[in-house]
Amino acid sequence: MEQAGRLAGKVAIVTGGASGIGAETARQFAQHGAKVLLTDANAAQGAAVADGIVKAGGTAMFAEQDVRDEAKWETIVALAERSYGRLDILCNIAGISGRDPRLNIQTSQTAGPKLVEQTLAQWNQVMEINATGVFLGTRAAIPAMQRAGGGSIINISSICGIIGSHANAAYHASKGAVRIFSKAAAIQHAPDRIRVNSVHPGFVDTPMTLPGHSNPDIARKRLEATPLGRFGTPYDIAAGCLYLASDESSWVTGSELVIDGGMTAN
User: Fold this and answer.
1) 204 exposure class (CB count in 10 Å sphere: 0-12, 13-18, 19+)
2) Which are the contacts of 184, defined by CB distance < 8 A and separation ≥ 6?
3) Cβ–Cβ under 8 Å, residues 150 and 86
4) What's the start-to-end Cα distance of the chain, in Å?
5) What radius of gyration do the chain's Cα atoms show?
6) Vertex 186: Cα angle to 181 and 191 (nearest 5)
């Protein structure tokens, strides 16, 4: 794996690292010189991603994690510091759509239950993973970044954190929370040289979006709403995370990086 150096000497935690945007972000971080601790609830896939990075010449390790577990976050941050000596980057990517996981093909424009059909348990699950997990990770990482003299926290939101749609209302609420939370954290910890930014992907081909994109009608409507005329790839989003993780973005904090093929410009 070629060490390009944009993240040389840095240590990163990447959640949701077993697949999709998380896996590609972990690979890009490692390719550009970072030592990466990637985490996910899917232990088999996460370990395979870490193993692939190491075989390609990068530095990575995997730890199983449920981002809702407060105590586990302390363990993860301590593992990064103990293994690699510091923590410079946290990329909060782990998330769920709220769609029934048994649904292989999305049958309606709503990715998940409609508002009046949504149970409190469904709402809480989406909010806990997508929003509370980001809070817990950010809070746990800050002391380690203070010890390191600064850092970059990158929180994956969505275009659904900026605009409304047919999607699950809980998903919108959770991603909107990530957007505003990131701004508040950025202001509070600017004196610590800890930057906090949110990334807002549009329609990206990942395992999470596969059920929707497997429905030709839904896929067509999403492509028609995207001026660049294609779905995003995990690399498109990982490249944005790489920029925010690097010193190239040293004057960027509290910002929203929208990567959506022009969809929200419509």
Assistant:
1) buried
2) none
3) no
4) 39
5) 17
6) 145
Our answer to whether residue 243 is catalytic in this structure is no
Structure tokens at 108: 């309606």
What pLDDT is attached to residue 98? 80
Q: Residue 107's pLDDT band (boundaries 50, 70, 90)?
A: low
Q: Is the pLDDT score of 182 beyond 70?
A: yes
- Size of the chain, expressed as the number of residues it contains: 266
| Cβ contact 222:166 at 8 Å | no
161-170 residue pLDDT tens: 999 987 789 9
Q: State yes or no: pLDDT of 264 exceeds 80.
A: yes
Asked if 151 contacts 195 with a C-beta cutoff of 8 angstroms, the reply is yes
Please give the Cα distance from 186 to 193 (Å, whole number). 9
Write the class of the CATH domain 11-265: alpha beta
Instruction: Let me know: does 168 contact 97? Beta carbons within 8 Å.
Output: yes
d(CA 77, CA 63): 11
Instruction: Indicate the domain borders of the chain.
Output: 11-265
How far apart, in whole angstroms, are the C-alpha atoms of residue 175 and residue 169?
10
Classify the C-alpha dihedral 206-185-257-78 as positive or negative: negative
Q: What is the phi/psi pair of residue 221, to 5°?
A: -65, -35
